[in-house]
Design brief:
The protein has 5 helices and 13 strands. It is mainly beta.
């Protein structure tokens, strides 16, 4: 570990000098946490700020389980995001950021951001007017997000405040069945039994670390590989959980982002793309695990009776995908496999996510 003492942050090697990724999720978690801890302890003096960015980034993500050939569980979602140019938070917000020592590191650039999202959840059998009480309840979640983030060449931190509503006011039934009507797909019939209206509040804290390594000095077209470990905590009446994991990437120009954005509770990369005059691309595979204390979409409403199921307290995500980065933005696709989230769930959840981000 002599190199780390010089201020250059390195990933934690195994005995044979390689980064090890093992399954199942519980086995991989200890290695990821050790790597994340090394990122926290690396001297701040080694940090270099990313390029200043005088453009904002507008992004649109579309999630759907039809990419996996099903129509159940987390069935659809959309997320519209905006990230401001760097170093433009209002003064009071900048002072607030200074007090968040785990979020802001020396030499970082800061951004604030907004987002608007909707998620839709259904049981496995959507043909029943009265859904199976032992299956996931119908639910919609419509919410807005305010985000404050900071980044260096190797570290990214964000704090999100999510405010929204669960229940009929989230318009999940209208969003799903109107789309089904348009594409001549059978309607979901059990929405009369969805969760009741309830305001939702979540506070989500994220940390990601980015380590990139060239394959060799003569690697074609700057080809490199990298690993992005992460740690996330969410507190709220909608989602309360802690998550950790890592993403392995192979490609070119890996320093433009921290992985693709995704809807929570998936671990999200950066909604912005750092400025570059070069094209880039990468393939990636990720493994994440969550310890879940509260999930309103399984536990049911907080202050009134509703449909509910017995949730599992440990959930894992495996993801595969690709991203292309260009001077004016990024396009990415992520395919996610999620382990059972409640007792009696007979199949994995599977869905795909497409995101287009544009700098302007």
């Amino acid at each position: 570990m002599a190199a780390a003492a010089t201020g250059v942050p390195l990933p934690l090697p195994m005995n044979d000098g390689r980064i090890a990724m093992r399954t199942p999720i519980h086995t991989a978690t200890s290695s990821v946490l050790a790597l994340a801890l090394l990122g926290v302890l690396a001297p701040a003096a080694a940090e270099v700020a990313p390029p200043r960015d005088d453009r904002g980034t507008l992004g649109l993500s579309i999630d759907n389980d039809l990419f996996g050939g099903s129509d159940r569980h987390y069935t659809a979602g959309s997320l519209l995001t905006y990230r401001a140019p760097t170093d433009l938070p209002p003064g009071w917000l900048d002072r607030f950021a200074d007090s968040l020592l785990p979020l802001v590191t020396a030499g970082s650039t800061r951004r604030w951001g907004l987002a608007l999202g909707q998620h839709i959840f259904t049981p496995e059998d959507t043909d029943r007017p009265n859904p199976d009480p032992d299956d996931r309840p119908y639910a919609g979640w419509l919410y807005g997000v305010f985000t404050l983030s900071s980044a260096t060449a190797t570290r990214y931190g964000s704090l999100e405040l999510q405010l929204g509503v669960v229940g009929p006011a989230a318009l999940g039934e209208q969003a799903q069945n109107n789309v089904h009507d348009f594409f001549n797909i059978d309607r979901a019939l059990g929405w009369d039994y969805q969760l009741a209206n309830e305001p939702g509040v979540n506070l989500v804290y994220s940390r990601l670390w980015r380590y990139n390594f060239p394959f060799a000095a003569d690697a074609p077209d700057g080809l490199a590989w990298g690993i992005v470990p992460n740690f996330v905590v969410s507190l709220g009446n909608v989602h309360t959980y802690a998550a950790t994991g890592a993403m392995l990437r192979v490609g070119r120009n890996l320093g433009t982002d921290f992985g693709p954005p995704r809807a929570r509770p998936s671990v999200a990369g950066s909604a912005f793309v750092d400025p570059t005059d070069e094209w880039g691309w990468y393939l990636f595979a990720g493994l994440d695990g969550r310890a879940v204390a509260r999930d309103i979409f399984l536990d049911g409403n907080t202050w009134q009776d509703s449909r509910s199921v017995d949730k599992k307290h440990f959930v894992g995500d495996a993801s595969l995908g690709a991203a292309v980065v260009f001077p004016w933005g990024r396009i990415s696709y992520v395919h996610t496999f999620r382990t059972a989230e409640f007792e009696g769930q007979g199949t994995l959840a599977e869905f795909g996510s497409v995101t287009l981000s544009v700098r302007f």
